[in-house]
Each structure stands twice: as structure tokens, then as C-alpha cells.
Amino acid sequence: MKLGIVGSGQIVHDFLSASNQMQDVELVAISTLARSKSVAEGLAQKYQINKVYTDNEAMFAASNIDTVYIGVPNSLHFSIAKEALAAGKNVVCEKPLVETSEQVKELKKIADEHHVLLFEAMTVLYLENYFHLKEDLKKIGKVHVIALNLTQISSHYADFLAGVHIPKFDRKMGGGALMDMNIYNINFCVSLFGQPKQISYLPTIQRGTDTSGILNLTYDDKQASLIAAKDAVGPTCSYIEGEKGLIYFDGPLNVLPDYHVQIGKEEPKHYNFNKYDHRMISEFNYFARKIKEHDQQAADEAAEHSLNAISVLEKAQEFLPHD
């Protein structure tokens, strides 16, 4: 995977910090805004990236790049992914892929027309612990209660309250607890249990943004409560409760560091199958392999899942106040 990176913010720094552990990932170029050129040049020097662009279109035209990684504010994902796919590049886009189901469909159509692959970088769905947990669900019987909690008080929360513009708190830029954090809970829940019958979202609104909220998903035989908070300090304990036992874990869902399985009154068993310390390595190893093989089925399945998750996200957004 000969990679061109769009963005020079926090998520790109995080990705690059683990990039030397990723298999078949070659860092070819990075593109950023002109005002951030010095940041990109620093990253290029530190991580041996060959070329720095301040024009995405120019980078997308480069013949030595086959894949574009998009790590910019959420509101820009759709337009940049659309441009990259139309230029004949495979795309790996940070979560959430886009904001609406129609946008997912449009990107998939463009990808298919240009014979390239599209993947959403949703870390939890590619962690080894996720796949083992999915199998262990069979041990706990029919599930009736799901409680997922991703609470991480933002390091920028005080600045946000003071009136400083913070993109991750700006709903117009795709910020807020629902888009930025609860999207992990949504993807995890939908991947394991499918589409809910009913959706309701109870947000805490501060300065026009949902700084936290509880998303309730109703199924025929189960209820799911998905909590995300950028404005609170609290436990990140999550539970999946079945008729024969339960699965629980304590830690950010996007990392899923380990989990426990308890059957009846037996002592809980602890598991950790993750191969890497950094959450992004497994997903990028997968993307690189599938792009090298041009695995259309893998891309189709990824797009279908993204569509299902974004459909839930889209309906949840209807509960947010509108300008």
C-alpha cells in the first residue's frame, strides 16, 4: 500500500507513531493546508515521508500513490474521499466515514466505477479481541441487555467552555459526543446484533453541541444503552448480558484492551488476544492486505457495515437541536 496521507492533526500523528509496525505500508506523501505546511514538513522529516503537498488534487494525481488515508475533521470526509476515489485511489477514511447513508452509497458507487476499494478506519472491528469476543457471545446465551460506555473527558473541554473554537466540539465540523465517540459504540453494537427497530438519543447540550449523550437502541428481544461523554470523568465499564452469562470489559471501546466472560456463577475468565499495543496496527495490516489482493468482497462487506452503522447515526442525529 503506497500511501498518501491527507491531514496533519492529532489522528495523523497517532497513525504515524505506529506506522513503522504496519505491514506493507509505504509512506509516500502527506497533504495538508498551506497554513499547516510546517507541521507536515516536520512529520515528513520524522517519518521519512518523501513529499509534502498543500494541494490534495496534486497528490491524488501522483502515480506512485495507490491509496489515500484521510485523517481530517469529520465534515470533510465525504468531499475528500469523493475526490480521491474519482482520481482512482483506494481510500481508507477515518471514522465516521461520512454523516449520511446517501453519502455512503455515493462513495461506494464512485469506488466501484473506478475499480478501487473503500474502507472505514473503525479500529474496534479489526482488533483480535473483537473477533474472539464475537465468538464468545455464543457461550452466554440469548442476549437481552447491552450497556456500552465510552466516557473520556476531553483535554479541550475547559477551552470549549471558555468559548474557544474546538473542531471536535463543533457540530458543523462533525464534532460532538455522538459523531466523535458514540460512533464506536454504534459500530460495535450493530456489527454484533444488527439493525435496531427503534432509536432514541438523549443528549446533553452545551453551547449547541452534544457534549455527552445516551443512545438507546431497541431490538425485538433486547435493549442497548450506548453512552458517550466528552464532558465527564467516569468508568468505561461495558456489559453484554445473556441468559447463561455475561461478557464485560473495562476500557475504551476503540482500544478494547481485554474482556471477561462469566458463565452463571462461575469465576470469570479473562482474555486478551490483541497482537499489538497500538489500536491502529491491526486495521491497517488488514487494509494493506485487502488492497494488495484487490479483495472486492472485503470492500463490499465493509461498505455494507458502514452503511448500516451510518444509518443508525443518521437517525440519532435527528434528536439533536437544529439551527
TrEMBL record:
Q: What is this protein called?
A: NAD(P)-dependent oxidoreductase
Q: What is the lineage of its organism?
A: Bacteria, Bacillati, Bacillota, Bacilli, Lactobacillales
Q: Where is the Gfo/Idh/MocA-like oxidoreductase N-terminal domain?
A: 2-119
The residues covered by the GFO/IDH/MocA-like oxidoreductase domain are: 152-247
Q: Which InterPro entries does UniProt cross-reference here? A: Gfo/Idh/MocA-like_OxRdtase_N, GFO_IDH_MocA-like_dom, NAD(P)-bd_dom_sf
